[in-house]
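Changelog note: in this version the structure field was regenerated for every chain. One regenerated record is shown below for reference.
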Amino acid sequence: MKNLILIGMPGCGKSTVGVLCAKALGMPFLDTDLVLQSRSGRLLQSLVNELGTEGFLRLEEEVILGIACEGTVLATGGSVALEDRAIAHLRRTGVSVYLRLPYAEIEHRLRNIATRGIAMGPGESLRTLYDERIPHYERNADIVLDCAGQNLEETVSAVVAAFRAHAQGR
């Protein structure tokens, strides 16, 4: 069975939606940010602070390239779509679903941007990050789901339905 790979901006709900999709589909769940933290023994924000954005992205890519699973729901870090080898590795094993939200909704959801462990360069704003990443998510998505204004249950239902339809070739 293929993996279900959730991609999108920090704050779009990948981890929360992923856990609930895994329950609904009867699949295991894996959060790549938690794998990164576990393997490094440090929190994401500490890694970003110590390694800088480029160093963090290299470490994240290395960790992603070491993930080997099937039939699993994966919630990825918001920056994984920036790393061509990492996202290609994940996409070979599954279906990537981009949880698309408008900027205003991302901004509203992200209250802890300075401590969340987001790979942002010095002086980079959330808006700049959003504008930079959107084309990467769109290019690397097998399925794009518009999640604006949806509650959690609606988003999970949409992801599960889209994943099942894709698996059946519809």
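Spot check on this record: The radius of gyration is 15 Å. The chain has a mean pLDDT of 93.
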